[in-house]
Amino acid sequence: MNHHDVPSPPAPSYRRQGDLLLLSGQIGVDEHWRPVGGTFQDEAGKAFDNVRKVLSDAGAQTHHILKVTAYLADMNDFDAYNEVWLAEFPRTRPARTTIGATLYPPLRIELDVIAWVDGAVRGPAGA
What we know:
Layout: E1 14-17, E2 20-23, E3 26-27, H1 40-57, E4 65-72, H2 78-88, E5 95-100, E6 109-116
Parallel strand pairs: 4-5
Antiparallel strand pairs: 1-2, 2-6, 3-6, 4-6
Helix pairs in contact: 1-2
């Protein structure tokens, strides 16, 4: 591993329990676990690309997402995260939490996702 690689975690990319799909944290790395670099938006976009890939592997799509927890290495990236968030979810948006956290350098974002894989995802009452 060189100083630009991120170690692959000893965990599956997702775990299904009944109708719930729990994704392991998704980050902005390529298939060789190299950070994509670039802007925060580039990295966050790649993290969401990785979320879509894991969901697809599990037979789900982004509209099945119930909740996203985002861990940001720098809370000054919060506005940039909102830009990416709105592009990813232009209509119906999942519940979300955003937390400032220490991440493996040089990563700036990690996404924790919970999805519903059987049946329709419903919004709040009255939605």
